[in-house]
Amino acid sequence: MAESGTDCRLPQQRVGAKEQPNGQSTDVSLSERRQRDREERLSLVVWKRPLVTLHYFLLELLITLKEWACRLWHRRQTAFALLGLFILLYVVYSFEGTHQKYVQYAEKRSLWCAYWLGLGILSSVGLGTGLHTFLLYLGPHIASVTLAAYECGSVDFPEPPYPEQIVCPLQAGAQEEAGAVAVQGGITLWTILSKVRLEACMWGAGTAIGELPPYFMARAARLSGAEPDDEDYEEFEEMLEQAETAQDFATKAKLTVQTMIQRVGFFGILACASIPNPLFDLAGITCGHFLVPFWTFFGATLIGKAIIKMHIQKLFVIITFSKHIVEQMVALIGAVPVLGASIQRPFRDYLEAQRSKMHRGAGEGTPAEENWLSWLFEKVVIVMVCFFVCSIVNSMAQSYAKRLQQQKFSEGKTQ
Q: What confidence tens digit (pLDDT) does each residue in 180-234 have?
């Protein structure tokens, strides 16, 4: 960060390079062309132009796969080393022996960690609109563990079926009284935090990994000196150029984030990563643009998202779904005039159904009836996942359209 003074002058030097005779009219026409091209690309969506969008999506997918294959070929030594390692692991996994119990434990833990790590990456990597996996997966998982802990009086759920299904542990003839006794006894906030720590930290680490693409993109553009090929980065450069004349609140907020990261360094990045911050993509672009060292950026992001922010979110969900809070919320729903009783009934039925599930044996099946709340939540998840997939298709199609626009512009300049 000691070089930030030099880094700050470089955007201004680039602006100065544009100030030529008739440069203002050139900049205006270029800005108008970019705005027109951007509006044309944004109209390319599945629900407006499905055939063209799908065609462009497939072409962009082929180009992306070709680029990945070329990169993999350039790093073929590393790829062959990884392939050899996977073959060795497969051999160890396939042969019977006393080591199999350790292999099975490692497999179960690895898949569980990879699942939450992948969901965290999907939440922040910038594919399409982003998939809100905390609201759809991690939050409900923590809420289920919290409700089960207070109901069962323990977090020692039998594995299997946990984590796919939560069942109260069997206790020598005392299963019927387990919930009432242990609610007054042994479940603490720290017990529940410890139970969900692994999946929460893996999800947080995934969100930190998902913040790397904006950092690498901005860093590569700065080092190469090429024109940025990303709209967020173009917006960032325009914001730097107009820093002194910024008036609207959104621009001032972005400039505040950029200034804090640039001046404070590691602890500024840590502060931005430790709280829910919709502007954190700007932090990655800022760090890449000002050539902040990789481990400074990623270390602060990982600590902030996987440890500090994750514990704040866990505490919020656990406190919200604690037994007495949930009972008070259901009682408040019943106090709503006219509609209160009818709205309250499905919530009570749902909670009772969840409690009865927890007290069944691990081998017993689930009841046939399904509460409309769980049915509604499943449909909401399906709709959000489908919209996420559509947004990826739209984004890749728009990327291919941008390639065509840039090609057309380059051909026009050479003629």
A: 444 445 788 889 999 999 999 999 999 999 888 888 887 887 777 655 555 656 6
Residues in the chain: 415
Q: One-letter amino acid identity for 103?
A: V
| Cis? peptide before 161, omega within 30° of 0 | yes
Q: In sequence order, which ranges of 185-293 are alpha helices (DSSP H)?
A: 189-195, 197-210, 212-224, 231-241, 249-264, 266-273, 280-289
Distance, in Å, from the CA atom of 373 to the CA atom of 61, rounded to the nearest integer, reads 38
Q: Per-residue pLDDT tens for 234-248? A: 666 666 655 555 556
Average pLDDT, the chain: 77
State phi, psi for 235 to the nearest 5 degrees: -65, -35
| Residue at token pair 């499943």 | 378
Query: What's the Cα-to-Cα distance from 13 to each of 18, 43, 271, rounded to whole Å?
Result: 9, 35, 30
List all residues 6 or more positions away from 140 whose beta carbon is below 8 Å from its beta carbon: 377
- Residue 6 to residue 125: CA distance in whole angstroms: 30
- Determine the Cα–Cα distance for residues 390 and 139; give it in Å rounded to an integer: 24
Q: What is the CA radius of gyration of the chain?
A: 27
Say if residue 11 is preceded by a cis peptide, omega within 30 of 0: no
CA 78 – CA 73 distance, rounded (Å): 10
